[in-house]
């Protein structure tokens, strides 16, 4: 399996994560490791290129123990390295409130999944990434967590935003601390996934304009062309420009 490109995608059972899993599986000579909180028929029933393989890991992204235990099983699949980690698993609840009244428990819940989930994925994957020739760690971030753009986007999803800000910071630090790694954040856009449609309806917004496949194609193209010099440490957007951190 050492000649295959190994891609790990967290939160792969629905939405963008599922779309990424499908698309990578259709590429030849790929091993796609898909993580999910629970067994998912949407994953186990996927078709793929005959030279590619799907591995499904069940884990809780907010738990360091659950994540490290799941990654420890990769040796049984003869996986010795990981080329690309896509930290996609995330939580977006309708905890809508200004900072003066936001529920601290909701902030903590989002921090546990959106910040610590990315941290757990990186720490568990790092021993495998270090063995890859050109390793990449990519976080699916959000423009709602752009501190520089707070005034432009007044939607009071403060629990979600705070959790994503933490993840953004970690990825920027991962870039600075690891010279042999390409690490960056990508904003997938306003995507018409199940969750994206629910959020748009809750805020009285029109349906998101970006299809799941359009977002997936953009993300994969960014990863394909990414280099440490040109992409590392950036917050890239489907809108064609970098967002403010």
From TrEMBL:
Keywords: NADP, Oxidoreductase. The keyword NADP applies. InterPro entries: Fungal_SecMetab_SDRs, NAD(P)-bd_dom_sf, SDR_fam. One of its GO terms (cellular component) is cytoplasm. It holds the Pfam family adh_short. GO terms for molecular function: oxidoreductase activity. Belongs to the short-chain dehydrogenases/reductases (SDR) family. This is NAD(P)-binding protein.
